[in-house]
Amino acid sequence: MSLQITKTFNIDTDPDSLFEFLTTEFADVASWGSGITSSKANPAHQSIADGVPGGRLCEVAGFGQLDEQLVRYEPESRTFAFTVEAEKLPSFVSDMKNTWSLRPVGQATAVTMSVTADVSGPLGAIMKPMMRRKFDKTLDGISADLTTFVESGKVSNRKAKELAKAGR
Question: What is the mean pLDDT of the segment spanning 33-53?
């Protein structure tokens, strides 16, 4: 059975600049995204385009290390997607993917994030509603963090508290 969570939100910036930021700075998500303690380019994944890493490694509380590989990169349509493998992802979850699409809306950009995953077995059926809530909350946090960072140039209050707690 499939799990899909989609969130759309607006950011006061132009879509081309946002697409460039999200893809060329793909490996630096920990600099603005809360819950992500570190991130870096994954040299095991070949670069997608000039200045665009092919993947990243992230440390995320509760999931351990995530290996995220860009599998779709379409500057013309301002769409990119990456697969997600996590060391602490339950065995009943597979084929996780996150697709981002950006489109102009007046002077702003509408950002749509869509997380999909296959959830299998009886435990997957039982856990699917809880996973949906967890992913909804995660997408809410990432959208708020990104909006704050892009519109103000500063990290969100939540990310600032994480950095202070970590002594950074």
Answer: 93
